[in-house]
Amino acid sequence: MINVCDVNVMKPLLAQHGFHFSKAKGQNFLIAPWVPEQIAQQAGVDETAGVLEIGPGIGPLTQQLALRAGKVCAVELDKRLEPILDQTVGEFSNLEIIWSDVLKQNIPALVAEKFAGLRPMACANLPYYITSPILSALLEARCFDSVTVMVQKEMALRIAAKPGTADYSAFTVFCRFYAEPTILFDVPAHCFLPQPKVTSAVITLKTRQTLPWEVLDTDIFFRVVRASFAMRRKKLQNGLAAGFPELGKQGVGEVIAACGFDENVRGETLDIAQFAALTNEIYRRRHHD
Ligand code: SAM
Question: pTM to 2 decimals?
Fold first, then answer.
């Protein structure tokens, strides 16, 4: 197997194919072999797993996944990588490469078609310019056991943040609604070529098979969350009044009181159960009118 993480192997390989990194496609390739090994190992990839990889690049993580998994499907946007991947991962019969933009894929359909009888997982060193849309699509697909990805450290801290902290955001609530996050390890910039300007971190999201909160309407739930964080420094009352003008100021006050919250509470201090309580109160009022 070609050691694609060795710069003395990688650079001539890229030169041989006239390949130049595309910043626009988020191409920072791994040059530290311990990183893809640890991602595959700590994600718990084994022969029962069907792994969707996003952005194989020249294949360092793909190799580690294909060595362990029952099947790997890797979705890559950049067709220029085809002859290189032929050389670096062509030997794996349990690997399929799909040349496409992952955001244009119907992920649940792809998983159902490719991973029948296997435990679906997602693993990736993500292109950072589209981290949020990819993670949203992977979690909303609700078909993976776990999603283990390398992201900017700042993003990992946001995803794993606790209520009331500076990193806590609407995206935190979105991720934690579908999954339980754990930050696995940091990856310094010198582990990539070219070096990014930021530190990275690998995070695993263990997806929830059943949701531990009763949420009567998911659309209202995410509207509540967005409205609660839209005016971070202001009271929840103001954010909800702006996000739900149909309730009016008085209606918003009544919803907050019915949930047992202080009228001065700020949205950024609420946990998912409390956002669920607000959602269900708004839902009941709508359906009683
Ligand atoms: N996995 C390789 C590694 O760790 O060295 C490459 C990771 S690099 C950070 C991100 C990869 O995602 C690149 O190969 C890039 O071409 C690919 N990519 C970027 N946008 C994509 C998209 N919309 N769909 C699929 N792949 C994409």
Answer: 0.95
